[in-house]
């Protein structure tokens, strides 16, 4: 009895694995065509200055409007894009679109300081030897000044290939681009080595912000990270601010920027434009 149960379990497991492999393959095939079929789109989430509650810029967040499955989260398809190398063309597409849109906003809204744009960069993209050349080309094509572009990378990119990363960061800096470390706190979280890389800002992962109000320990951690970042001349962005209590605490710490549902969800381009419009008028 036990044996047959074991067998059945095994079979279920295999079938499950098979189903998953097939759907992964399907996803991969679909993703290949997604760019040309214009199924990819960019949402924009405001990054707000906590000093005056004004929109400083946006983070570009990729979405896939799949023909049968609907909107697919980047958490699901970015790993597939990485694995297949599709992240390279997709990444350049995101950069181009986001820079282009930001330039349009800058020309449209001249009464406010030029809006900035944060673009996520994956490890594979970062390992491309011509990344800087391509970004330079995109900046020229879109007319966006490099100082308006912020590139987000994770700590693991810096750790895993420190020499290459240092070289890339210097090249990007020469274009005026600012470098942000994304999801800070979830990885190695060593502030001392970040100093060696001339990082401009840290984005504290939203898991820390989320538990800030409820447990003192997280509050202390966010406070300590913020202080140390400031001592190292880095700005701090708090991710995932959802309550006004969290906002108040972060303002008390002199955290420079914030992002989260309290201000706005990621928005489609038209809605983002409307948000800027309404913030300019008040
Ligand atoms: P991320 O770069 O850390 O982006 C922040 C994520 O937090 C976004 O998820 C955003 O929608 C979500 N978020 C923002 N505020 C709140 C909040 O108040 N509460 C909660 N619960 N969530 C909030 P999203 O858009 O699903 O993106 C997930 C991840 O996918 C991103 O994390 C990033 O690592 C990756 N990603 C997105 N777009 C791109 C892209 O163009 N290229 C690459 N390489 N990765 C991307
Ligand atoms: Mg990010
Ligand atoms: Mg993040
Ligand atoms: Mg993330």
TrEMBL record:
Native organism taxonomy: Bacteria, Bacillati, Cyanobacteriota, Cyanophyceae, Oscillatoriophycideae
Name of the featured protein: Diguanylate cyclase
Superkingdom: Bacteria
Species this protein is from: Chroogloeocystis siderophila 5.2 s.c.1
Segment of the intact protein contained: 730 to 1011 of 1011
Domain EAL, residue spans: 24-280
